[in-house]
Structures are given as C-alpha cells and as structure tokens.
Amino acid sequence: MKHMNWDNLRVLVIVARSKTLRRAAQKTGISPATLSRRIDDLEQELGVKLIERVQAGCIPTAAGDKIITWAKEMEEIAFEIERTVDQQELHAVEGTVRINADELISYFLTSRFENFHKLYPKVEIEIITSHRAYSLTRLEADIGIRTFRPEQGDLTIQKIGKLSYGLYCAPNYYQRHKEHIDRQEWNKLGFVGFDEARSHFETEKWLRNLPKAPIPWLRCSYALGIFDGISHGNGLGVLDTFVGTEFPDLLYPVIPHIPELDQDIWTSVHSGLRSSARIKAVRNYINELFTRQ
Predict the structure, then answer these.
(1) pLDDT one-digit tens code per residue, 35-78
(2) Do residues 117 and 163 touch, judged by C-beta distance below 8 A?
(3) CATH number of the domain that 29 lies in?
C-alpha cells in the first residue's frame, strides 16, 4: 500500500455525511469533480472500494463503512486535541476566533469591531457568512450567532438580544408613491424580497401575506441584495431595523416595527472552548454590542 493522504480521509467523511458530491462541494468549496478524484485516490491507496456512486448519491460499501467509522473517531480525537490546547490558553488573549452568522448579522458585526481590536490587538477575527449554521462540534467555527436556538451538540448557549424588522422603501420611492403607501394600497406598489428558494423565511412569508400585495418583482438570494434593491428605489421590502437606523438617508420606514417578526438572537460555543480567554473576550464583546442595540 502506498503512503496514505490523511486529508483524503477527511474528504471521505464529508462526502459520507453529505450523501452527495454536490452537497459536499457546497460545504467544502471544493468542486464535485475534485472530491470524486480524491475519493478515487484514497480507494487506490487502500486497494478497496469505499463509495458506490449511484443516481441517488454516494453510498458507502461495507469496507467504506468501517473506514468511515474509524476516520470519524480520528476526527473527534483531532478536535479534542484542539479543544485541549485551547483550554491551556486560558490566560493568553490572542489567536484567531471564527464567527459564523447570517448575512446581516455579519454586516452588523464587521462594522463594529474597531474598538475590540483596540482592546485585544492580538486577537484576529474571521467572520464566516452563510445561511447554513456551521458545526461547532466539528470546529467549522468557534462561535455561532443565529436567530434560532441550537438543539444539538455539547454547546454553551446564550440568548443575547432580539432582531426586529420593519417595512422600508427608498425616500424617493416614498415621494413617488406616497398616496398609495399611506393608504396601504399594496396592490399598486412594487416589492423586493428573497427568491423562491428562500420563500419559507418568516420575513418573506409576512411580505407575501400582505393583503393584495404582488409577489416581489425583484428577488434576491442574499439579504444585502434586498437592501440594495430597496435603497435604490425598486420597491418596498423587509429589513432588520438596525439597517434602517444605520441608513436613514437611504431608507424610509413605511412600517417601522413589525412585532410578529421579532426573533431572539443566540450565541453558541462548544463547551470545550467556553473557558478560552479569546473566546470569552469575543463573546462578551458581542453580547455588549447586541445589548446596546
């Protein structure tokens, strides 16, 4: 047997968890073709078939199941080593902290970390923006910030505040359609919202349930696209109220607050990292930001 590439074992585990090469590619940022080639390389190195590629996805063989189980155990040991090292750094406020959040929360954070850097110049921040919640157990991120309470994993969870939403348009759009907006004649107005793949979002369901309101004619897959569409006069749409507060010259509050859309904000961190000095410093700073919001 040739020398084995250990990183290909990690690819095998990711593909097995994801069930398909396409989903594994979305998680890793590696193309399906490259993932497939990495699996082929591992099979050649081990001299055994590990994955059957069928129409429904990727199914481990009997040998593949055994090796995947061992690889997961190796992965957990590696994570435990990293967590142990972090626990030994209790008094060293330095290093990198990776934060996973959705788009607008990420924007909220990136525009407010200047003071943190002055306090902790040796701590580096990586903000990983995604709709998908990254796994803290598998150390895909150190801190998660989400508008739902995580239910799985050995996590330390804390509610830190609320997100509220309003209905906005551009000031010039309001001037052009003031009469219809003031009368809430939604059928005579244009809307900006998420695309069909995200029509299940609560903000989108609220928007599409406005009496006689048309489906948004301008639809985006990302929240900052909605902000751009609204602020450039393309119609009405739902945004976090902190965005409206931050850009009063670009956004007019048609409905300043929609109480039924309020969402709790939760931070989570793997329990093995909660005592890390740098993790505590970042969590405390984030908590203060949302408390003041």
Answers:
(1) 888 888 888 888 889 888 877 688 889 988 888 888 888 877 77
(2) no
(3) 1.10.10.10
Write phi, then psi, for 201 (nearest 5 degrees). -60, 145
Residue 1: inside a domain = no
Percent of the chain beyond pLDDT 90?
A: 31
The alpha carbons of the chain give a radius of gyration, in whole angstroms, of: 23
Of 58, 86, 114, the residue that ends a domain is: 86
Q: Which residue has the tokens 């890390």?
A: 276
Distance between CA 192 and CA 40 in Å, rounded?
Answer: 45
Structurally, the chain folds into a number of domains equal to 3
pLDDT per residue as tens digits for the range 188-227: 999 999 988 888 889 999 998 999 999 999 999 888 899 9
Which domain covers residue 211, as residue numbers? Answer: 165-261
Number of H helices, E strands in the chain: 12, 12
Q: How far is CA 259 from CA 164, 193, 262, in A?
A: 7, 19, 5
- Helix residue ranges per DSSP H, the chain: 6-18, 21-28, 32-46, 62-87, 103-110, 114-119, 171-176, 178-182, 202-208, 223-231, 241-246, 277-292
Q: How far is CA 273 from CA 141, 150, 164, 203, 285, in A?
A: 11, 16, 30, 33, 16
Question: Residue 152, Cβ neighbours under 10 Å: how many?
Answer: 9
Residues 66, 144 within the same domain: no
